[in-house]
Write the structure tokens for this entry.
Amino acid sequence: MKKQFLKCLAVLGAGMISSSVLAGVAYPDPAGGWTYIYNGDKDTAGDPNSGFTSLDGTWSHDNGSDQFDGSKIGGTLVTGDFGVGNSPGGMMSITEGGVTFLRMQDAGNPTQYGYPDPPSNRKIFFGHDISAETASDTILDEGVTLTFRARIPTPAKTTGPLDQLHRAGQSAAGPQAYPATGDGYLVSDGGKGNVTIKQAAGGAVAFALTVPADTFGGDPNGTKANFSGLTMNKLNGTDIVGAVNFDSPGEFRGVQLDPTEWHEFWITIKQDTTGVGNYEVSVYVDGSNQPTTLIVTSGNGSDFGGISYIAIGGSRTDENWALDLDFIAWKAGVLVPPAPPTPTEPPKISSAARQGDKLVITWTGGGTLQTSASLPATWTDVAGATTSPATVNLADLKRFYRIRR
């Protein structure tokens, strides 16, 4: 469960960003907090051409990779203009198990099923201006840290709505049930994914949650991803190119895990100095301080000119997908996750094993071993027994031990 009582500090008003924005569940926040965090608990559908007015009031869907129709997921499907119709898919905040998150769904290509375009939800893509929050034009080159907690929803693990799929090229078969195994995404369009970061000077790195049955373009008979986890730009040289997508040449990049479970990612991106690619990406997952480090090529995809930005969603018209996003945050610099806090559980003796005329006592939680010959006790420290395990002589037939911290 995310720390909602801390994360309410995220956005104070237009142009007013808290100096200490807190996020994590599995990881402590960096010193001074995050520069910005979106909590998943705001789902304002800003009007077309209104700029950065969506979600918490700082995201825009005015870009070439979006055809959001303003609707939430579920309900009676209705054709119509923005804010009037309810095409398959959409976005909305949902609360389950005490966690409030944003659900985004692209059900395929509704235009092939009689829904007007624009808008039709055939692609949903929101961007957030990080240049306005002090990000430089070369934020990727200089180094940046992202964190987000996300999953691919599945019917067995959610009570929230999921629309039927309106798959591209499958209209003759009619709408199809949302897959029991989830519906993920594949990096496309020159480095665009479920989570994307783009620097104003050029170059984008994208991340997508992917299930094995995903296909590039949504065709269920197409080439399947055959991978379960977090995928990203391919490695395909040192130029900023469009060919970093799932179907591009080059070396595949991914971190294997079950994307239908919640995972918290802490990701650092910095310039590659080996001459192999453009960026070194280190992915930490679920509290681990051991990253998976991969080198990727920078994509040329761009939707908001002249700024550095982060984006969420999916940009490909024919690909269907769904994503649950608990939070996303960013901060300049390559920041290693802080060590977890010192455990607060009391010390506990875990074993006492006899070895000849000695007793080896093992405990957890720190502290000093103490002993007494009787109860009620007058406890005394065992000399030198300040770390576990400790070895004591069996000089008495009866003796009691405890840990003092």
